[in-house]
Write a structure and sequence with these properties.
Layout (H helix, E strand, L loop, with lengths): L2 H13 L3 E6 L16 H21 L3 E8 L11 E3 L5 H14 L4 E6 L7 H14 E6 L6 E7 L12 H11 L3 E4 L3 H4 L23
Parallel strand pairs: 1-2, 1-4, 2-3, 5-7
Antiparallel strand pairs: 4-6, 5-6
């Protein structure tokens, strides 16, 4: 993180109180490669950008969130007013741990972690996730399959070992309990719907990018 970004974040966090949202996304050209059979490269990148924009908009309208931060190796089309923390490419979990540590040092004790592929997410759902975490220190939104993690919120100044990957819901719950937190599970439609496979594309309805779908 550059000194300029750190300075901007320090000033922003000093003015605001509430949760900080970390939205993680890879380089756009490397996202959603499993959709390559259904979308050409241009359509896939357009879809990725569209979903990220939807998540950013929902976070921006959430009452409980007062700072949005992108964790990524590139800025791409992220608005200039949103800080981008560098993902060095080691792993998503390492990048999130580094970002979480930096935010704790800057005094932010409420962290919402979101992926960039939740096209149906709403501000109200994010507020519900944060509210649930405030009761026990931790909340988690599983994916539709009930084994993965589509979002989580940590209300704690302790370091948290992120466990994104196979069986992440169970591992995140285990980590929260290790820290003495009381997990709350939040199941809401916009938090459950992520886009990983070609069959998931049909759940999006009629979107402008669909005209680019492969025949």
């Amino acid at each position: 993180m550059s000194l300029t970004v750190q300075g901007d974040l320090t000033r922003a966090l000093a003015r605001r109180r509430g949760a900080c949202a970390l939205i993680a996304i890879k380089a756009r050209s490397r996202c959603k490669t499993r959709l390559a059979g259904a979308l050409d490269d241009r359509a896939r990148v357009e879809l990725v950008r569209s979903m990220l924009a939807a998540v950013v908009a929902a976070v921006g309208n959430a009452q409980a969130v007062h700072q949005t931060i992108i964790v990524s190796p590139e800025r791409d089309q992220v608005p200039a007013e949103i800080p981008v923390l560098a993902d060095t490419g080691e792993s998503l979990n390492v990048a999130l741990a580094q970002a979480h540590g930096m935010l704790r040092e800057l005094g932010c004790g409420e962290i919402v972690v979101l992926p960039a592929d939740l096209p149906g997410i709403t501000a109200a759902e994010i507020d519900t996730l944060v509210s649930a975490a405030r009761t026990g220190g931790f909340s988690i939104a599983p994916d539709a399959g009930g084994t993965g993690t589509n979002a989580l919120c940590i209300v704690s100044i302790q370091p948290f070992e992120f466990q994104f990957g196979p069986d992440s819901q169970h591992l995140h719950l285990q980590e929260a309990r290790r820290l003495g937190l009381t997990p709350q599970i939040v199941r809401l439609p916009g938090l459950e719907l992520d886009i990983d496979s070609p069959s998931d594309l049909d759940l999006l309805g009629e979107q402008p990018w669909r005209i680019l779908r492969r025949a």
